[in-house]
Amino acid sequence: MDFMIAIYVVLSVIFLAAVFLHFATIPQGSVGVVTVFGGYRRMIMPGFNWTRPWERSQTITLQNRAMELEFKAITVDQANVYFNCTLLYSVADNNEETIKRAAFSFASLPEFSLSLRKLLEDETRSYVATKRQAEMIGISQEVVFRIKANVDARIERWGYRVEDLRYNNIHFDEIITTSMARVVAAINERDAAENEGQALLIRKTKEAEADGSFIKIKAEAERVAWKLRGQGLSDFRREVATGIHFAVDELVAAGVDPNYMLFFMYTETLKYVAENSSAGHTIFLDTNPSRPRDIMEQMSAFYRVGDPGLKK
Questions:
Q1: How many whole angstroms separate alpha carbon 101 and alpha carbon 155?
Q2: Mean pLDDT on 29-40
Q3: CATH architecture for the domain at 65-172
């Protein structure tokens, strides 16, 4: 009898231990989905959790996960474009309904990854199929946002969301790359020629403007110079006339024939020529005593205009 009681006690302890000592540990950044005979029962939080022997737990991570993809697309003009991109995704949130969709939308994580990969490839290929190779040199950020939004809307039904999408490398076949390099080189040469032409035109225009300004300034300077020369000559003649008039008045006041002024000017001119001549010219003078009188009469007749008011 005592043996049977001991057996019952041992079996009870084992049963209670199996019932109450069954537990599940959920890592930080994850949640646990508990099922009973395949049906959803509840959601457990990170840490230590007691479970019943007939319950099974599945860990769903809430952390970001990354996926790297390499695939090929064809443009509308039949050019092959090779993509290398990185997709960052995670569970949309920690709500119970979202966790249930993330846990039961696919039978396994590899099947979800395959579907997500094919979805991103199809969205990218659909976009590339509407573009030419020249338009695929660089995908703008706006296009990346559009592809990301389309993928995000599709996987939202699965309980996931796209955190980030980056196209790390986009390249073409070697023959296309070579031809595009030649096109770019030709465009650069054309732009360089246009820029050089514009620079030459600007330089020539500035030189012409500078020449025109110089000619204008030079002409203005010459005009002013000639004006000043004319004024100087006019002032010189005025001063000469004033000096002669004053000298004549002095001679008249002294009772001397004013024609001696002309003779004096004649002899001073000969003296100036003799002193300043650098070619060694010889000046011949007439020594006839009547010659000075003849010279004065001739000069007087030359300078006389109307009635000069002089006494003979």
A1: 10
A2: 88
A3: 2-Layer Sandwich (3.30)
